[in-house]
Amino acid sequence: MKSFLQPKLQLLLILLSLYSCTAKKDIAQKHSADSFNPGSVWNDTEGNPINAHGGGILFHDGIYYWYGEYKKGKTSLPPEATWEAYRTDVAGISCYSSKDLVNWKNEGLVLSAVKDDAAHDLHTSKVLERPKVIFNKKTGKFVMWMHVDSADYSKAAAGVAVSDSPVGKFKYIESFRPNNAMSRDQTVFVDDDAKAYQFYSSEDNKTMYISELTDDYLRPSGKFTRNFENLSREAPAVFKYNKKYYIITSGCSGWDPNIATIATADTIMGLWTVQKKELCEGPDADKTFYAQSTYVIPVQGREGAFIAMFDKWNKTDLESSRYVWLPLRIDKNGATVLWQEKWDMSIFDK
Question: Which is it for the CA torsion 156, 322, 311, 103, positive or negative?
Answer without folding.
Answer: positive
